[in-house]
Amino acid sequence: GGDHTITYPILQAVAEKHGPVGLVHVDAHTDTGDAALGEKIYHGSPFRRCVEEGLLDCVRVVQIGIRGSSYDPNPYEYSRDQGFRVVPAEDCWGKSLRPLMGEVREQMGHKPVYISFDIDGLDPAYAPGTGTPEVAGLTPAQALEIIRGCRGLNIVGCDLVEVAPMFDTSGNTALLGANLLFEMLCVLPGVKT
Questions:
Q1: Please, what is the Cα angle at 39 between 38 and 41, to 5 degrees?
Q2: Phi and psi dihedrals of 5, rounded to 5?
Q3: Domain count, the chain
């Protein structure tokens, strides 16, 4: 729960202990906007703020499932200019993400990694309970491939954000969110499953 703004102070604390971290970021949006309605800190800007403060090891950042609306005519430009790997949703359609996660594992190496998962990375057919649903997203099976593909990485924290149960009368979004969090707990270092 909570919007993606919560990741910014979490990464401040994580970087204080571990230094700049790698990031596996699943989302419909890059969340690298500069400002909205005159505010520099909002749910569309946490990763720009993190870059500005040196909280991220930018060559070890991957953003998966990116698509949909943006305030910027080139929404991937800022991320790519920082050295992030951007994997648009259309590059994920109709296939397993295991090969991608093999590449991500190499990119992350043995240094500290944080996982930040916005539920709107998934298609709203599976997770409509979010404030900014975007069509043509990832499937739950692909979400599991991403999370399970992080097993063995030096994960120092994780979050799941933007779940808004009041927008989903079926309860499926909350159920999916709880299961994804469980899966994240299972891939933390030292957890035996």
A1: 160
A2: -60, -30
A3: 1
Is 167 a member of any domain?
no
- Is 28:67 a contact under the CB 8 Å cutoff? yes
Alpha-carbon gap, residue 117 to 162, rounded angstroms: 9
Is residue 181 included in any domain, yes or no?
Answer: no
Would you say 165 and 174 are in contact if contact means Cβ atoms under 8 Å apart? yes
Residue 168 in domain? no
Q: Is residue 171 part of a domain?
A: no
Sheet holding 56-66, edge to edge: 85-88, 56-66, 21-26, 112-118, 154-161
Domain that holds residue 50: 4-57+67-112+121-153
For residues 174 and 35, give the distance between their C-alpha atoms in angstroms, rounded to a whole number.
Answer: 29
Please report which residue ranges of the chain form alpha helices under DSSP H: 7-18, 46-52, 77-82, 98-108, 140-148, 172-186
Q: 94: domain CATH number?
A: 3.40.800.10
**What is the pTM (predicted TM-score) of this model?**
0.97
Is the pLDDT score of 181 beyond 70?
yes
3-state SS assignment for residue 64: strand
Sequence-distant (≥ 6) Cβ neighbours of residue 37 within 8 angstroms:
none
Q: Over range 24-53, report the average pLDDT.
A: 94
